[in-house]
Amino acid sequence: MATIKDVARMAGVSTTTVSHVINKTRFVAEATQKKVLAAVEELNYAPSAVARSLKCNTTRTIGMLVTKSTNPFFAEVVHGVEEFCYGAGYTLILCNTEGNLSKQRDYLRMLAEKRVDGLLVMCSDLDEQLLELLERQKETPMVIMDWGPESPHTDKIQDNAELGGYVATKFFIEHGHKTIGCLTGHSEKTACRERLKGYRKAMAEAGLEVKEEWILEGDFECESAVAAAKQFIAMEERPTAIFCFNDIMAMAMISTFQQAGINVPEDISIVGYDNIDLAPYFSPPLTTIHQPKRRLGKSAVEILMQRVKDKEHAPQVFEMIPELVIRKSVKKLN
């Protein structure tokens, strides 16, 4: 098996230069890079991650806990994380928790055993039990993305959820809607409470009544949206518009309504949240609140890298600003 000395000898450079090229830790002239990479390819050289971690006290790996990477919102964020990790010469270990406490505990143990340099947490199931597990990982640099409370040991990225809820509801009101319902996410989650707060604020400003029976709780998955749509269908008096707390639930609700002969936006208007890649191609194209998902992933890794370099810096909270993307799922009544 080839060693770093073999590569250096073939490329006519020092082992230090080979190390910088492979690890992308310092600028190396393009011509030199090409010679080193050609030698690496010809010799089929692969540096020992174990040796490097012992020497440098870094594994150049990042762990990421995510509820379900098949969910389009999480998938797009993960893509942003992976893209940035690749560019920085880091390996990403992705762990799907699926809300299972045993899997969360086992993954955290496994990531600790692998000595990951840092941890990203993006779990819609971020409850007290998982927070307690994370609190035990105080020595591991960590960024919590979007769902959890601030912690003295972690940095945090969140969307301005109250503003997002306000903008979505105000758009309905500006289009003449006065009876507006909501399909929320988990009611105990901070982001969901803030989005609902924004909805109530817009309704109050317009002097409109909030009917509590029109605020239904979902879980950010399709099945809960189908059940909620059936509840709305069964109501004698339905709202003319519904604000869904993510795009997947909005799409499942539209599909269920249409199967029941209720057309969107002719009979009922829908606004989603996230602006996933599928949103413009759905029927009708979905009006939604945009979250910059790939930038969210990139920012999370950048912040985590800062924490890896300086574990003592004060916790940071970075806020993403939501934006309305107007398409074809809202009918103008005025």
Automatic annotation (TrEMBL):
Pathway: Purine metabolism; purine nucleotide biosynthesis [regulation]. This is HTH-type transcriptional repressor PurR. One of its GO terms (biological process) is purine nucleotide biosynthetic process. It comes from the Bacteria. Keywords: DNA-binding, Purine biosynthesis, Repressor, Transcription, Transcription regulation. Residues 2-56 form the HTH lacI-type domain. One of its GO terms (molecular function) is DNA-binding transcription factor activity. Consists of two structural and functional domains: an N-terminal DNA-binding domain, approximately the first 60 residues, and a larger C-terminal domain, approximately 280 residues, which imparts the function of corepressor binding and oligomerization. PANTHER family: HTH-TYPE TRANSCRIPTIONAL REPRESSOR PURR-RELATED, LACI-RELATED TRANSCRIPTIONAL REPRESSOR. It comes from Photobacterium gaetbulicola Gung47. Is the main repressor of the genes involved in the de novo synthesis of purine nucleotides, regulating purB, purC, purEK, purF, purHD, purL, purMN and guaBA expression. PurR is allosterically activated to bind its cognate DNA by binding the purine corepressors, hypoxanthine or guanine, thereby effecting transcription repression. Pfam families: LacI, Peripla_BP_3. Residues 4-23, 48-56 bind DNA. Homodimer. Hypoxanthine binds at residues 73, 189, 220, 274. SUPFAM superfamilies: lambda repressor-like DNA-binding domains, Periplasmic binding protein-like I.
